[in-house]
Design a protein that fits this description.
The chain is built from 9 helices and 13 strands. The protein is α/β, with parallel strands linked by helices and 331 residues long.
Length: 331
C-alpha cells in the first residue's frame, strides 16, 4: 500500500475495499463500574484520554512545570542520529499509544521504515492522524490499530515478517510508569516475544529526582492538570450514565516514596451520592478515587526490568540533569 487515503487501514473501519479486522476491546462500562465499586475506588488512567482529555494533556505538555515532554524531546534531538544508527533497516515502526503521531513523525524522517503501525485506544482521532502520516510519508505503509494494550498485547496478526522487516516498538512519553512494575515487566516481555530475533524496544522512563520537581509536574499553577483529571468523571458520566459532579472533586497529587510513584487522585469536597444504572456509591467528604499512578525509576532499576523482560542488549541516553531516560532494548 502507498501513503495516501486508500493506503490507510484501521481496526473496525473499512479501507481500500478490503474488510477491516476488529480487535476485541475491554467492556469499558464494566471496567469503570468495577473500579468505582472497589474498596479503594479507582479509574484506569487510559480513561483520561478521551477527545477532551487529549486536548488537555497536549496543553499540559507545554506547561513550565511539566518537564517530561520537553526533556524527552531534547534527548531525542541530541541523540537521534546515534539511536537511528543502532536500529535495523527496512523496519516496522510500531507506535504504542500513538496519539497525534507527532513523535513518530520526527522519527520516520530519520529511520529506514517500510511500515508504520499506529496503536491507540483513542479511536476518535486515530484514523485521521495515521492517514495524515501516510500522506507525509508515501513510501511507508501506514496502518492504524485500535487496541487497548493495558491488557494482553498481541499485535502478531498486524506485523509483517519480523525477520525480513524487524519491528521497533516505540513507547515514548514515560507511559510505562502508569503500570505497576510487575505489569510493566509483563508488557515489555510480551513486546520482547513479538519483536522476533532482530526486533527492538525504544522506550522512555521518567527517572527519580527531587520530589518537589515531580509533584509540581502533576499540580500546575494554572490548574490544567486538575481539569484533565476531573474530565475523567465526565467520561464516567458518558460511558456509565453516572451523575458525577466533577466540580465537587478536588485534584490531588503526591509522591509516595515507599512505592516510588506519583499518585493522582480526585478527592470528594463533601459527601457525594453517585448513581449509575441500578448501582450507586456514596463518597464521603475526603474520600478519594485513584486515577493514576506514575512510577519513577532509577536507571539501574529500569535496566533490571528490561533484563527481566528478556532483553539482553540495553542502552540508555539521558539529559544533563539525569531527569529522564530513553532506553533502547534488543534481543
Amino acid at each position: 500500500m502507498a501513503g495516501n487515503d486508500t493506503a490507510f487501514s484501521m481496526e473496525g473501519a473499512p479501507s481500500s475495499g478490503r474488510r477491516a479486522e476488529t480487535a476485541p476491546l475491554d467492556n469499558r462500562a464494566e471496567e469503570l463500574a468495577a473500579g468505582l465499586r472497589a474498596g479503594q475506588a479507582h479509574i484506569d488512567p487510559k480513561f483520561l484520554y478521551d477527545a477532551q482529555g487529549c486536548v488537555l494533556f497536549n496543553a499540559i505538555c507545554e506547561l513550565e512545570e511539566y518537564y517530561p515532554t520537553r526533556t524527552e524531546r531534547a534527548i531525542f534531538e541530541a541523540h537521534r542520529a546515534a539511536i537511528a544508527q543502532a536500529l535495523p533497516r527496512r523496519l516496522q515502526w510500531v507506535d504504542l499509544g500513538c496519539g497525534d503521531c507527532a513523535k513518530s513523525r520526527a522519527w520516520l524522517a530519520h529511520v529506514d521504515a517500510c511500515r508504520y503501525l499506529g496503536v491507540d485506544i483513542a479511536a476518535d482521532c486515530l484514523r485521521h492522524e495515521v492517514a495524515a502520516l501516510g500522506r507525509k510519508f508515501p513510501q511507508v505503509a501506514c496502518v492504524a490499530v485500535e487496541a487497548d494494550f493495558t491488557g494482553d498485547l498481541d499485535l502478531r496478526r498486524h506485523l509483517a515478517d519480523t525477520q525480513e522487516q524487524p519491528p521497533v516498538f516505540f513507547y515514548p512519553g514515560s507511559s510505562i510508569g502508569n503500570f505497576d512494575p510487575e505489569r510493566a515487566v509483563a508488557l515489555m516481555a510480551s513486546i520482547c516475544r513479538q519483536a522476533g530475533p532482530r526486533g527492538s524496544l525504544l522506550i522512555s522512563a521518567d527517572l527519580r529526582k527531587d520530589r518537589r520537581v515531580m509533584e509540581r509536574a502533576y499540580a500546575d499553577d494554572l490548574g490544567v492538570t486538575a481539569a484533565f483529571n476531573r474530565n475523567v468523571l465526565r467520561v464516567c458520566n458518558r460511558v456509565l450514565g453516572s451523575d458525577f459532579q466533577p466540580a465537587e472533586f478536588e485534584h490531588e497529587s503526591r509522591f509516595d516514596d515507599g512505592h516510588g510513584r506519583i499518585e493522582m487522585r480526585l478527592r470528594a469536597r463533601q459527601r457525594q451520592h453517585v448513581r449509575w444504572g441500578s448501582s450507586e456509591r456514596i463518597f464521603e467528604a475526603g474520600e478519594d478515587i485513584v486515577t493514576e499512578h506514575s512510577y519513577k525509576y532509577t536507571p539501574a532499576q529500569f535496566d533490571a526490568m528490561l533484563e527481566q523482560a528478556g532483553f539482553s542488549v540495553r542502552n540508555m541516553w539521558t539529559d544533563p540533569r539525569s531527569w529522564f531516560g530513553v532506553f533502547l532494548a534488543q534481543r
